[in-house]
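Dear H.,

Thanks for agreeing to be a second pair of eyes. The structure we're designing against is below in token form, covering all 222 positions.
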């Protein structure tokens, strides 16, 4: 999934970004409220980790502005303020969750997982298409009782396609959700990754599940 981290404490931002990268997500980081807001408005993030106390535009203001623009990306607010009143104000602004500093990275990761599983796409822990299943918590893939090991990009591609099983997903959409801002990824590179993914997920089995929709993109379907 593609996640935006907005946090002005550079050290903290880096710790969060690298922990989320280890989880296989594509991360963009911003150290300012104004820039973070602009990025959140222009890119299709799957989740935003947002510090509350930011220069220029505060975290709570950013959430309000996003919700006013009908951007419903889940937001986790990070804050040094821990009173009930602060918490209520944070959630009232439209944030989905609230974490008080100092927090453990494991706690953040588990909240991120929970939010990424939430509706609008009601996501179960285990996604299944035909005889292929993907466990979003363990990051494991099993087909016909055999475990398949993937690189983190291959995993992210497959997870995104399986979350939208039966729907055609364009290469541009895959680029936006699976890669971060800084990666100079081209549609050709997506093809190369899909090719590798097919070698592992489809080749050893009789029925291919990753389908090319010529001129549009890809879909996973049994
Ligand atoms: Ca701050």
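And this is the sequence the design step returned. I haven't edited it by hand at all.
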């Amino acid at each position: 999934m593609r996640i935006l981290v907005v946090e002005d404490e550079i050290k903290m931002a880096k710790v969060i970004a690298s922990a989320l990268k280890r989880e296989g997500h594509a991360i963009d980081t911003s150290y300012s409220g104004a820039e973070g807001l602009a990025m959140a408005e222009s890119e299709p993030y799957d989740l935003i980790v947002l510090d509350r106390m930011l220069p220029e535009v505060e975290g709570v203001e950013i959430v309000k502005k996003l919700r006013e623009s009908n951007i419903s990306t889940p937001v986790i607010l990070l804050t040094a303020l821990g009173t009930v009143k602060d918490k209520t104000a944070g959630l009232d602004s439209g944030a989905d969750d609230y974490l008080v500093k100092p927090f453990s990275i494991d706690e953040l990761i588990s909240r991120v997982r929970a939010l990424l599983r939430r509706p609008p796409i009601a996501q179960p822990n285990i996604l299944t298409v035909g005889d292929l299943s993907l466990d979003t918590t363990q990051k494991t893939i099993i087909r016909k009782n055999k475990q398949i090991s993937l690189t983190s990009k291959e995993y992210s591609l497959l997870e995104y396609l399986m979350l939208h099983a039966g729907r055609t997903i364009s290469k541009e959409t895959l680029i936006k959700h699976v890669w971060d801002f800084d990666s100079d990824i081209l549609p050709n590179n997506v093809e190369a990754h899909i090719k590798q993914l097919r070698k592992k997920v489809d080749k050893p089995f009789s029925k291919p599940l990753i389908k090319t929709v010529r001129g549009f993109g890809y879909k996973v379907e049994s």
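Two observations from my side: The pocket of calcium ion is lined by residues 8-9, 51, 53-54 (CB under 6 Å). The chain has two domains: 2-117, 126-220.

Warmly,
E.
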